[in-house]
Design goal:
InterPro entries: AMP-bd_C_sf, AMP-dep_Lig_C, AMP-dep_synth/lig_dom, ANL_N_sf. The chain has about 475 residues and is of the alpha/beta class. Helices cover about 30% and strands about 20% of the residues. Helix 9 runs parallel beside helix 10. The structure holds ligand 8LE.
């Protein structure tokens, strides 16, 4: 039986940093067997659930509907009786009980940080954190960052939007806790990408955090300014926010462009700043750091946990959060999980193919489910093609048509017709669909400093109901 510290939530020694040669930040947990880990997770889960029950009106109400009380929680199956929580539900609750909702488990005086979403997909959601939450999430970030190779000697350029993007704040707190130098540069202001290139060239950061789309755009800008991104000297680029770092062809492009390793991390803003998912330096897919955030992968329809080796929707539960804990938060994403051990030896399950994307981003064309990330993998595996692309879905008569718009790489010498042909054939074999390919000159499609939106579904504009799916 693994012994948990007496306190819940745990209190970590803020001054502790392992020696640079140490493999693990928290060897006690990271070298457990899978059985020991399960045991630890269950103990933490019981305490988190008891805490939530005692402090959150939101969950007490939800759980009363299924007749659940914390004493009922003996094993993971008991836990699976609890209803899911959706983003929509949290939003509605915050509208009814502004601004934090009825899931605020601490007093207003105890709030240490307030964050929120930018509200691109609806009304913004507010997140409150206690001081202890902030410290624990910084610790969690530092632990995952250590696993992918970040050390106190590193200089980390944070090239993502601050203000309402929690990912940037989590990265900053983690870098500070780990003892590396943080350069919280941000992104998204007019002219900032050009400035980023100049600052990076000047300061020579050894690590970069942002979105994969932005890293590719930044590299393009650097080349326009006559700078080879390899000259920045970056050895680790880590990402969250969208698929990309887990898409093999994108990973290869980022690595060959910058000369550093590309690392995938990330879950959802509601879960972060805790880093729930993140790769180690072996980069065999994101580890699901179960003792930080308990993650289940469940079948989108039956809503039952799927066995390892199967695909499903990640569902997240905090294990160390006081202010606004999430219990069984439905992500609406799709992934595949495995518990085959990674060469790093950590006991955590993994998402070996990353997170494919939101179920909402998936388009159904002639009965085939198409994720933009699958198209991305094909586009970026063709050398003559640029990094940017769009999926345009329309309806011709009663038939759905998928067109993929791509750009020629500005420095490529390939014949556009040959590149288009090769793309058409590869898409056909990967998606099982005939796709119309449109090759555009380099620089035609809009770039993003944040997360890319690459699907244009004209069926919606045409008033036809697309075959599609939605999350819970
Ligand atoms: C594939 C986790 C964070 C703060 O970086 C973030 O982007 O949170 P946000 O804005 O709530 O967006 C969450 C969504 O981004 C997820 O549901 C998923 O669709 C996508 N996402 C985040 N990280 C990844 C990702 N998709 N791979 C990732 N590594």
């Amino acid at each position: 039986m693994v012994r948990l510290p007496e306190q819940w939530p745990p209190v970590y020694d803020r001054t502790y940093v392992p020696g640079p040669e140490e493999r693990y930040w928290n060897p006690t947990v990271e070298t457990m067997t899978q059985e020991q880990l399960q045991d630890l997770v269950l103990q933490k889960l019981k305490r988190q659930i008891r805490y939530v029950y005692d402090h959150s009106e939101f969950y007490r109400k939800k759980w009363a509907a299924v007749g659940f009380e914390p004493g009922d929680l003996k094993d993971f199956e008991d836990f699976e009786r609890l209803p899911f929580t959706t983003k929509q539900e949290l939003r509605e609750d915050q509208m009814e009980h502004p601004p934090y909702g009825s899931n605020l488990c601490i007093s207003h005086e105890e709030i240490f940080h307030i964050h929120g979403t930018s509200g691109t997909t609806g009304k913004p959601t507010v997140f409150a954190l206690s001081r202890g939450d902030w410290e624990r999430m910084a610790e969690a970030h530092a632990r995952v960052m250590w696993a992918f190779g970040l050390r106190p000697s590193d200089k980390v350029f944070i090239g993502s939007v601050f203000s309402l993007y929690v990912g940037s704040w989590g990265a900053l707190a983690g870098v500070e806790r780990l003892g590396a130098a943080a350069f919280p540069f941000g992104a998204g202001q007019p002219g900032q990408t050009e400035k980023a290139v100049r600052w990076m060239w000047e300061v020579k950061p050894s690590a970069f955090y942002g979105t994969p789309s932005y890293a590719l755009y930044l590299a393009e800008k650097a080349k326009e300014l006559g700078i080879d991104p390899r000259e920045f000297g970056i050895r680790i680029l880590f990402f969250s926010g969208e698929p990309g770092a887990g898409v093999p062809a994108t990973r290869r492009r980022i690595e060959s462009t910058y000369g550093g390793i590309c690392v995938d991390t990330g879950s959802m803003a509601e879960m972060t700043p805790w880093m729930a998912n993140g790769e180690c330096q072996h980069r065999q897919g994101m580890h699901v750091w179960q003792d930080i955030v308990y993650t289940e992968v469940v079948h989108p329809e039956t809503k039952q946990r799927v066995p390892y080796g199967r695909e499903g929707v990640p569902v997240y539960t905090h294990l160390e959060r006081q202010a606004q804990p999430m219990v069984r938060l439905w992500s609406g994403d799709l992934t595949l999980w495995t518990n085959e051990l990674c060469p790093c030896g950590r006991p955590y399950p993994r998402f070996p193919k990353g997170i494919y994307g939101r179920v909402d981003d998936m388009v159904v064309v002639r009965g085939v489910n198409v994720y933009p990330s699958a198209v991305e993998d094909v586009v970026r595996s063709i050398p003559g093609l640029g990094d940017e692309f769009r999926l345009v879905v329309s309806r011709e008569g009663i038939m759905d048509e998928l067109a993929v718009q791509v750009e020629m790489n500005t420095t490529a010498h390939e014949d556009p017709a040959i590149a288009a042909d090769s793309l058409r054939q590869k898409l056909k074999s990967v998606l099982g669909l005939s796709v119309h390919v449109e090759v555009l000159p380099g620089g035609t499609l809009e770039r993003t400093e944040f997360k890319a939106r690459r699907v244009v579904d004209k069926r919606r504009m045409q008033g036809a109901a697309p075959e599609g799916s939605s999350g819970a």
